[in-house]
TrEMBL record:
GO terms for molecular function: phosphorelay response regulator activity. The modification 4-aspartylphosphate is found at residue 53. InterPro entries: 2C-system_Tx_regulators (IPR051271), CheY-like_superfamily (IPR011006), NreC/VraR/RcsB-like_REC (IPR058245), Sig_transdc_resp-reg_receiver (IPR001789). The keyword Transferase does not apply. This is Response regulator transcription factor. The lineage of its organism: Bacteria, Pseudomonadati, Pseudomonadota, Betaproteobacteria, Burkholderiales. It comes from Undibacterium nitidum.
Length: 124
């Protein structure tokens, strides 16, 4: 599985990379701290999945999520955010997110989700 990470916190980026490097058959094909240019990078790297923050330095990640899901619907997306209120969760799921996680409480679920996607496909 080719995974692309869009996260503007270097600390979270590094934590994600360390987590994911332990997983067999998951390759991180790109990391971006901003929305600008991320769509083209995701397409160019043939990403199968992405981890996406909502609040990024150059805007809201949900617009990118909608664009990805409308043009490459098979890309699976974990939204990982500090802003995990119900309104954001519903917006993310409507935009096509396959999973919605809170950075502070759900971080540990990421490896399980990625491994499940590799074997069973996304859980909706």
């Amino acid at each position: 599985m080719n995974l692309f990470i869009i996260e503007d916190s270097l600390l979270i980026q590094n934590r994600l990379v360390r987590f994911i490097e332990e997983l067999p058959d998951v390759s991180i094909v790109g990391v971006s701290a901003e929305i600008a240019g991320a769509y083209d990078k995701i397409v160019d790297t043939h990403a199968d999945a992405m981890i996406l923050d909502i609040q990024l330095s150059d805007g809201n990640g949900l617009g990118l999520l909608k664009k990805i899901k409308s043009s490459i619907p098979e890309v699976r997306v974990v939204v990982l955010t500090n802003h995990s209120n119900e309104a954001n969760r519903m917006q993310a799921l409507r935009a096509g997110a396959d999973s919605f996680l809170d950075k502070s409480t759900d971080f540990e679920q990421i490896p399980n989700i990625l491994q499940r996607w590799q074997t069973h496909g996304p859980a909706h």
